[in-house]
Amino acid sequence: MSSIKEHRFNLCFVLAACCLFFFGCRSSENEADESDEPEEVLQLLDVEYESFQKIVGWLDRETLLVHKGDHQSHDLSTHNLFTGESNLIYEDQSYLLSVEISHNNQQILFQEVSDEGVFLNIIDLDGEISHTLSINYSGYVTLDWNSVNPELIFLSHYDYNVEEETESILVQIWDLSDNSLKQRPIASLYPHWYTSNVYVYVDELEGRHLYVGDIREENTDIIINRDVRDFFLHDDTFIGVVPSDINENLVYLFHEYPFLVGDSVITIPKVSMNNEPMKPHMTQANRNGTILGVIAEESVALEEELGSYSLQQLNFSDESTEDIVELPYDAPVSLSPDERHVLFGWRYEYIIDLRSGDMQSLINGPS
């Protein structure tokens, strides 16, 4: 009887050992597979530093839209970060000013200035023009493309009245369905679409209050918050910037998801210009996804000094921030669709690997 028990024990022991060996091999294979995964090496732009204008943004997780140009011509092209492949999309003997990528990443809207006039053009990724509109303004315009109804685009800029010698803000809506422009009385250069008809903005002329409006109604914009001085908006995510009423060196980032439904708040050092709080540069690539921000290390008045900054992840779930990497200065950021890389700089000329924290320039030349 004891020999039978011993035999069973030995059999169980052998089976257990085999299982451990099997899973150990599988684990080693998985680790080997992970280690054998080829490292993605970022490829620099093949462009002369003098002709580089800017990186417009992401077309997908590995493709950038690049704007180049000189005094003779300007062009738009794609650049693959990992293969280095570049494809020309559009080129003309003109100057390209404001450029914006559509929310589905399939179209490009840009302002073109030439001897023939000033035009807004929309092209697809093959460079074919689908819409064009003549406008009477040769300076940079602010563009905001409606993500819900892509046939509506905000166009805004300063408007100078020569006879009255006054300057005001002109906001128009470009309706692609009939190629028309309709003026909208909005006191902001930066109105943002929230739905197909509803928009929000901060009044830049009186009081700096947060307003909401509806294009289906005339002159019905209403104040919804007297404390919000600026805001970040991406899909359903709304983050309002509110000065602290307790500490003059702090501001609150109020996170609302969806809009007007209070969620949580993060306190950060105040960056100000002429005592007005400045909105930190923030980015979000996906609906309800990771939010990153360029946050000051301590309170700073920009008219006195530039300050020091770091890229931080804003975790509104537990109202905390997480340092990712120190930054050389304050500048815009843009998160990739797969949330693995961040473009940084006033021309998005740097890229940050969020896994390693490494930052490198995408162009050769002075930095």
TrEMBL record:
Question: Looking at the record's lineage, which domain of life comes first?
Answer: Bacteria
Question: For the YqgU-like 6-bladed beta-propeller domain, which residue ranges apply?
Answer: 80-345
A Pfam family recorded for this sequence: YqgU
Recorded hits in PROSITE patterns, A to Z, give:
PROKAR_LIPOPROTEIN
Q: What is this protein called?
A: YqgU-like 6-bladed beta-propeller domain-containing protein
Organism, scientific name: Alkalibacterium olivapovliticus
